[in-house]
Amino acid sequence: MTTQHLPTPASLPDAASRAVARGQPLVLLVSVRGCTACEWVRRTVLWPARHRNELVAVEIDMTDERRTLQGFDGQRRTPRALAKGWGIRLAPTVLFLSAQGQELAERLTGLPLMDFYQAYFDQRLQQATRQLQTGRLGRGAIRSLSLNPYGLT
């Protein structure tokens, strides 16, 4: 069963500003078309929370070279260029972003230990939300624990 993709915003700063106005980070899923791990994250974690109005989540396809969207630097870029700029080489990757595009919590890369993914996600979402509430914005540590074969070089 395939779940509908999350929306791809025309502007990441606008999407992030909407999320932050609600006291939430922007949750950005960086995916690849046909990626079963991406599908699992979308269907199991992100769509249910989005439907419960618990988060603002959007998605970009890290292989998309046709569409453009406004990045946090104000420039229009392809999703592929944005993913490359963030150093993302593996899907799925989930980022927790401020209105300025800063990472507020450690990104989730790949799909390590499916049984614990929801707990990892919830922990990072809480950390990112706390960062917004306290005003201590900083880049989270980037670590990749992955068993996912969908990489981009």
End-to-end Cα distance? 28 Å
Please state the average pLDDT score. Answer: 88
Low-confidence stretches: 139-153
Q: How many strands appear in the DSSP assignment?
A: 6
Please work out how many helical segments DSSP would assign.
4
Helix content: 25-40%
Give me some keywords for this one:
4 helices, disordered C terminus, 4-stranded mixed beta sheet
Could you characterize the architecture of this molecule?
It is a single chain. This protein is 35% helix and 15% strand. The chain has helices at residues 12-21, 36-51, 79-85, 114-134, and strands spanning 26-31, 56-61, 69-70, 76-77, 93-97, 108-109. The strands form two sheets. Strands 2-1-5-6 form a four-stranded mixed β-sheet, with helices on both faces. The radius of gyration is 14 Å and the shape is globular. It is α+β, with helices and mostly antiparallel strands and 153 residues long.
